[in-house]
Amino acid sequence: MVSPGESVLLVEDDDDIAAVIRGVLGNAGFSVMRVGDGRLVLRTLFEQHVDLVVLDVGLPGLDGFEVLQRVREATDIPVLMLTARTEERDKVDALMAGADDYLTKPFSNRELVARSIALLRRTRPARDAIEEISDASVEVDFVRRQVWAAGRPVELTPTDWNLLVAFVRRPGLVLSPAQLLELAWNDPSGVGSERVKFAVLRLRRRMGWTDPATSPIQSVRSIGYRYVPGGGSG
Ligand code: CA
Q1: Ligand 1 centre distance from Cα of residue 56 (Å)
Q2: What is the CA(14)–ligand 1 centre distance, in A?
Q3: 47 CA distance to ligand 1 middle (Å)
Q4: Residue 132 binned pLDDT confidence (cut-offs 50, 70, 90)
């Protein structure tokens, strides 16, 4: 299964193909960002939370192999390569260059979704094993379950903690009340957005993030909430 809000960065220059892939992955529960130019990939990875890169080999400017090389130098995020070519050599090249998997066009929608989910499942333990996060707003020690805001230790209830973790693990991503219910309460069908709203208010208060102008937990009107380390600029 796809965890709520798991995000895919699709790198594909062809608008029609990109629209199809975006629809397929979106229907499977991923949130999908797309760039059409390989030169934008690294910047996007630094600015956005991305769980999986789906990378077309055939791109103008930088081709997929060059993009892959740059991604690999910067991060170990899983990469699924799409190749239009069927030669064995391209598959070998893709895997040797650090792709985690590949698909040859044309591929079925179901295969794309299955491969994407399998890749995320394979790499998730490593991502979940992260022991601490330290960013511009917070330090979180997952092993000791301790939190500091502006260098000050903060006492959190289990719900506060789950909610904070849901945010800090997904910087920049807009999370809906339904997604937060599933992530923090493990209750996607639970009664709703009021509960999330009050929990967010309480978490902001505990963390000292009550000023909307500077709070790292930002309200995104009629959609949900977004965690931005350092706050303010959203
Ligand atoms: Ca292409």
Answers
A1: 6
A2: 5
A3: 23
A4: confident
CATH of 7-123 given 3.60.15.10, 3.90.1300.10, 1.10.1370.40, 3.40.50.2300: 3.40.50.2300
Please tell me the predicted confidence (pLDDT) of residue 234: 44
User: Distance from the CA of 72 to the center of ligand 1, in angstroms?
Assistant: 20
Instruction: Find out if CATH 3.30.1120.10 is the number for domain 132-227.
Output: no
CA of 104 to the centre of ligand 1 (A): 12
Residue 94 pLDDT: 79
Residue 86 Cα to ligand 1 midpoint, Å, equals 15
pLDDT digits (tens, 9 = 90+) for 172-200: 888 888 888 877 876 655 666 788 999 99
User: If you compute the radius of gyration of the chain from its CA atoms, what whole number of angstroms results?
Assistant: 19
What is the Å distance from ligand 1's center to 171 Cα?
29
- If you measure from the C-alpha of residue 59 to the centroid of ligand 1, how many angstroms do you get, rounded to a whole number? 5
CB 2 within 8 A of CB 30: yes
Domain residue extents for the chain: 7-123, 132-227
Instruction: Report how far residue 152's alpha carbon sits from residue 15's, in angstroms, rounded to the nearest whole number.
Output: 48
What is the percent of the chain with per-residue pLDDT over 70, rounded to a whole number?
90
Burial class of residue 227, CB neighbours in 10 A (0-12, 13-18, 19+): buried
Q: Rounded to the nearest whole angstrom, what is the distance from the C-alpha of residue 197 to the centroid of ligand 1? A: 42
The reported pTM is 0.57
Q: In what order do the strands lie in the sheet with 7-11?
A: 31-35, 7-11, 52-56, 79-83, 101-104
